[in-house]
Amino acid sequence: MPTIAVEQIKERLKGKIPKAADVVFKELHTKEKYLEVFYIKSISDEAVLHDKLYKPFFEQQHPDEFKNYLESIPQIKSYETEEKTINEILNGVAILFYQDSVLLFDSKVDRNNSVLDTTVETTIQGPQSGFSESLPTNLGLIRKRYPEAFLNVELTTVGKISKTEVMILHDTRYADPKTLNKIKDFLSNVNIQMFQTGEQLLDAIKKSNRALFPVMLVTERPDRVAVNLATGKVILLVAGSPFAVILPTVMKDFMASMADIYQTYWVGRFLLLLRYIGFIISVCLPGLYVATTSYNPEIYRVQLALSIAGSRNAVPYPSFIEVLLMLFMMEMLTEASIRLPKAIGPTATTVGGLILGQAATEAGLVSNIMIIIVSAVAISNFVVPINAFSFSVRIVKYFILASATFFGIVGVVIGFFIFIAYLVKLDSFGEPFLTLVQSKPHKE
Amino acid sequence: MNRYYLYLILLNMLINVIMFVPKILIEYRYNGAVMGTLIAIPIGFSLNVLFTKAITKFPEKGFPEIFARSRKRWIINLLFGIISFAAFTAGLISLLGFVDILRRFVNPEMSFMYLLSVFLAGILLITKLSTERVMYLLEIVLFLNTPLILFIIFKAFTSDYLVWDSILEVGTHLFTKPSLKAIAAASYIFAGYTNLIIFNRIIKGKIKGWNFIMVFFLGLFNLFTTFFIPIGFHGSDGAQEYLYPWISTSDSLRLVYSPIERVIFLFLIFYMGITLMSVSVHWHLSYELIKGTYKESKKKDWAVLAVFACISVACALFFHTLLLNKITVHWMLSRFGLEIIVVGLFYIWARRQKT
C-alpha cells in the first residue's frame, strides 16, 4: 500500500472516531523503526498490547524482523474497508500503522468471563454451573461438553444499534436444514434496536411482536444445551448474555428439567407426571372453584358441597370476586418476593402468606377453602421448570376463570380444550408445539 | 396399527350416544332393532373396509387433492357440496343435541344460545386448524378422556343394578323383521371412516388388516354397550321412557368413595371434550371440502365459517329436542343411503384408476 493511502486512511479514521477520553493514539519510536497504534483503551486489553506488541517492538531491532513477527502472530488481520475497521475499533481492536501497511490487532478485552452458578434452573444433582456473560467463554463451555467435529458455529449480528454478535450452533448430522434456514431467515428479519439477550426474541417471533407463549427455550445451563444439540436442536448464543436460546422448542422441552436425566427412570417419570398434573391444576383450579360453588355445587357429594358452602358462609360476595381478590393478592406476593432483596424476602412471604391468609379468612372476606386453592395454584405453578413458560401459564388461568364465571363447568372444560387447541396451533419453526407423542407422524 | 385411523372410528363410536342412536335403537327394540343391529354390523363394516381400501390407494391425499385435476368440475362441486352438507349436519345434530343435554342436566337456567356460543367459539377455532393439527388435538382429547369412559363402562358392567334378564328379554326379539331405521342408526357406529375423505391427508402408508379386526370388535362391543346397557338398567319397558337413555343410565351409577358421587357429571365432562372434537372433526371435513371447490381466498374461508355459525344459531332457535330427534331419524336414513352411494361410486372409480 502506498504511503499516501496509509496517511489518508489514518486521517479519515481519526476524523470518524471522535476524541473521547479513552481514545488512544500513540506513536512508538526506536532508532530503526516507527509504529503508530490507535485504539480505545476501555474496551481493549492493554496487557495484551503490552505483551504482544510493545515488548517485541523494542526487543527486535530490525524493522523487517518486526514485520515478520507481526505477520505471524494470530491476532493480526489485514485492513479491508474503512467501515469494517471502524466497527472493529468500536469492538476493541487496535489499528496499527507500520511502515506502509495498516493492520488490525485483536486486543478485545474479555470481561465477565467468569462462569456463573445456575440460579433459575436449579437441580439437586448434576452440573451446577451455568454460562458466563462472555461469548467465547460460553462457546468454550459448550465445546467442552460437546466435543464433536460436526458442531458447526456461524456468526451473525442482530440489533440495529447494538449489533450484538450472535452465534448459531448446530450439529450438522442431526439438525434439520429446513429448520436451520427458517431460523436464519428469522434472525436476519428481526427488527430490534438494542439486542441484549435471547429472551427478546420470544416476542419477535410473532408479526405483531406480541406473544403469549414462548416458542423457544432460554436456558442458563450448558448441559441442557449440549443435550439439546445432540437431539438436533439449534442453539443461539448472544454476546453479553449468560443465557442460550434453544430452537425449535416444544412443550415437552418446557416441562423437562435437567434433573430428569440425573434421576432414576421411574423417579424421572414420576416427576414429569407431577409437573403435568401441577400444570393442569394451576390452570383449571380457580375456574373449577367458581364453577362448582356458583353454578354446580351438586357435582360434589353432599358432604363436600356442604362443607364448601359452609366455609363460604361468611363471604359477602360471589365466588368469582373472591377468587379474583385472592389470586390478585397471590400475584402481588409473587412479584414482591422476586423484587425484594434476599434478606427480607422471607419476611414478605410470611407476612403475606400467613398473616394475610389467616386474617382474611377470620375477617370473613374469603373462605378457608379459597386459601387452600390459591396456595395450591401458586405452588403448582412453580412446578413448571422453565420460568418463561410458567409465567405464561400464570396468565392462562384467568382466561379459564373468566370462561368459568360466564359458563360454569362447561366453561372450564371447553375453556381448557380451547387452551389446548391454542397450544396445538402454535408451532416453533415448523415443529408443532404440542402433540401427545412428540414425533412427526411420518414415523408411523 | 395406524392409530390415527382408529381415533377417527373411535370418535364416531363414542359420539353415537349424543346422536340419538341409543334412543332410536331402544325405540325399535321389540320391532326389529336386534336383527337390525346384527345386519348393520356386516353392512357398516364392509362399507368401512371398501372405502378405506379405496382411499388408501391415494396416500396422503384427501378428496380435494384426489379430484383436483378432474375435468367435470360441476359434478365434483356438487358431490363435495352434498358430502359437506351431510358432514355439517352430522356435526350440527350432535352439537344441538349435546347443548340440549347440558341445559337439561347441568345448567338448567342458562339460555341455549349462551351455551351454544361457547361451543361454537371452540369448534370454529379448531375447525380452522390444519388437518394435521386437528388430529393432534383429537389424540390429546381422546388420551385425556378415554380412561374416564373405560372406567364408566367398567362401572356400568359391574353394577348391581344391571339386570341381565331385561337384556335377554329384548334378545328374544331377535327374529322380528329388521327395521330399516334401526339398521341405519346402528351402522352409524362404523361411519367414522367417512372422515378419511379429508383425514386421509395424514394417513401414511397402507392400513393393515388387523386395524379392521380392531374396528370390528370395537364396533361390536360398542353397539352392545350402547343398546343393551340402558335396557339393563331401566328395564326393557322402562328404557324407552327416557329422551337420552345413556345420560339417564349414567345417572343411575354412583361412585361411593369419590368426591364426585354422581357419574353423570363425570360422563358429561367427558362428553364435552368428545362432542367438541367430534363436531370439529365433522365441520373440519365439511369446511375443507367446501374450500376445495373454490380457489384460495381468506375472505371466503371466513364466510364459510360464518355461515356455519349462523346456521347453527338459526337451527338452535328453530329446533327443540323432539323435533331434533325426529329429524335425526330421517337424517340417519338419508346418510345411510348417501354413504352406500358414495362408497360404491368411489370404490368403482378408484378401481378404474391405475395407480
TrEMBL record, chain A:
Protein name: Spore germination protein
Cited Pfam families: GerA
Keywords from the UniProt entry: Membrane, Transmembrane, Transmembrane helix
Similarity comment: Belongs to the GerABKA family.
Keyword Nuclease: no
Subcellular location: Cell membrane; Membrane
Topological category with respect to the lipid bilayer: Multi-pass membrane protein
Primary localization: membrane
Ranges annotated as spanning the membrane: 234-251, 272-295, 315-333, 365-386, 398-424
Top-level taxonomic group: Bacteria
Protein species of origin: Neobacillus kokaensis
UniProtKB/TrEMBL annotation, chain B:
Transmembrane intervals: 5-26, 32-53, 74-99, 111-129, 136-158, 178-198, 210-233, 263-281, 302-323, 329-350
Entry protein name: GerAB/ArcD/ProY family transporter
Pfam families per the UniProt record, alphabetical: Spore_permease (PF03845)
Keyword Membrane: yes
InterPro entries linked to this entry: Spore_GerAB
Alphabetic keyword roster: Membrane, Transmembrane, Transmembrane helix
